[in-house]
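Hi support team,

I submitted a single chain yesterday and got back a structure, but I'm not sure I'm reading the token output correctly. Could someone confirm the output below corresponds to the sequence I sent? I've pasted both exactly as they appear in my results page.

Thanks,
R.
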Amino acid sequence: MTGPPRVIAIADPSLVVLIGAAGSGKSTFAARHFEAAEILSSDALREAVSGDAADQGASGRAFRILYRMLDARLGSGRTAAIDATNTHGRDRRALLAHADRHGVPAIAIVLDLPAAVIHARAAGRTERLVDPAVIDRQIAAVERTLEAGQLLDEGYAQVVILTTPAAVDAVVVVRDPAATEPA
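Hi R., thanks for writing in. Yes, this is the structure output for that exact sequence:
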């Protein structure tokens, strides 16, 4: 780890929405900071329903399952971390509706890394290959969201934006039942 750690205090329970292009490191971040049962991954659910994590045709079924699992976790007072690109407002609004229904805060963690880093990571994958043009569209969607200040307007209790691999590596997530203010 380089530099001092950045502590992100999250309420427990809460909804943590990871946002970033394919290859930005969302799954790695989730695995580092959340228990396996807390992570709801669109790729894992596409794999479960179709046998292929990259099968976009299975996304509808995968997200229906994800939303049911999210309701179950939040409804029983447990934190959920959503591991999906979440680059569009419509997708994030659907997640926020679940947090609102269960009265838990939502935290956005954005992996807004340089395009060259994301493309290099994506190119190094042996599974879940994503077309570079799709990644470029996802990067552009994240940038538009951030430039417009959209995330706070959407209702997140906290918005954390990480812009370098070193910043991502320096994060420490702590659970704080009273956390409601930005870290």
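A quick pointer for reading it: The radius of gyration is 15 Å. Let us know if anything else looks off.

Best,
Support desk
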